[in-house]
User: What shape does this take?
Amino acid sequence: MTTSQPLDLLPDSSTSFLSPYLPPSAPSDRVFVTLTYAASLDSRIALGHGQRTQLSGSESKCMTHYLRAHHDGILVGVNTFLADNPGLNCRYNIAGKSAVEASPRPIIIDPTFRCKIESRSKSMMAAASLEGKEPWILVSAEWRNSVSPSDLVHIQSIERMGARVIPVVGLRSDNRNESWAAILKSLKELGIHSLMVEGGARVINDLLCTAVDDINGAKISPVDVVIITIAPVYLGKNGVEVSPASALDNLYDITWDQFGRDCIMASFNKKLRADF
Ligand SMILES: NC(=O)C1=CN([C@@H]2O[C@H](COP(=O)(O)OP(=O)(O)OC[C@H]3O[C@@H](n4cnc5c(N)ncnc54)[C@H](O)[C@@H]3O)[C@@H](O)[C@H]2O)C=CC1
Ligand SMILES: Nc1nc(O)c(N)c(N[C@@H]2O[C@H](COP(=O)(O)O)[C@@H](O)[C@H]2O)n1
Assistant: This one.
């Protein structure tokens, strides 16, 4: 069982800085997506593939957990799950809410169930000790339809502990637009109205260049808000790089603030994309 200490509270100046960028309290027809991660000065998010790397200082870590408390779901790719064994819960104390209530639903994109999540995974332990919610693993419907007997036993065992393995029609590694449309549609149907996407690099780079259809059929970016922690370190050329496939100039209402030694950039993302 985990017994993690709650994090320090943010000063009012920091919560005021963040408040314009928080998801709206009333759900809309789409999932509100916040893309947030910590990067080095050379735009790396980890020292190397498979290496958990602490970039955020204590103040910006509090900020991340404060953001987690304001979202229904928190999403990572399976490589991040495998590299970091993350808790994906909220350790920021929100008045009047238990740790489970404050925590977002951990969501792992994992088309072929590589994560092999089990009771000792940190996110499962957090849920078992009432410090977080049980994770959902999004797998491709094709994989789920032809699941092996041993994987089926594995799925049944983690589902007995409250986790869910959710087949998503259209979840595929080779078409980001189709994949993200399918992911967000499924999550909306499952009651996730606001989603915080933390990474890793594949997820971030993809999402920045993804377009989905809005209700009128126009191509829009699924990302509403981008919040980036910039840590004053270089991770070097072997680091895992965030750099989308093409140049983007779509951020607006940009604000910067300093949290401890780190800088935080918060901004909105233009929804309408003519260039996809
Ligand atoms: N500094 C930070 O804020 C963060 C750092 N990280 C780091 O990032 C690294 C992992 O990044 P990556 O290797 O790029 O992997 P990733 O975590 O982005 O996972 C990629 C995998 O997820 C699945 N996937 C992702 N998007 C998909 C889609 N649209 N459709 C179908 N499948 C999809 C695929 O299986 C793919 O191989 C780790 O070292 C981790 O520590 C991760 C999150 C935040
Ligand atoms: N905001 C931020 N700063 C860093 O320095 C990081 N390495 C990350 N990583 C993300 O946080 C997850 C770990 O979460 P837990 O503390 O275990 O709950 C990790 O998987 C990345 O998504 N983020």
Remarks:
- The mean pLDDT is 95.
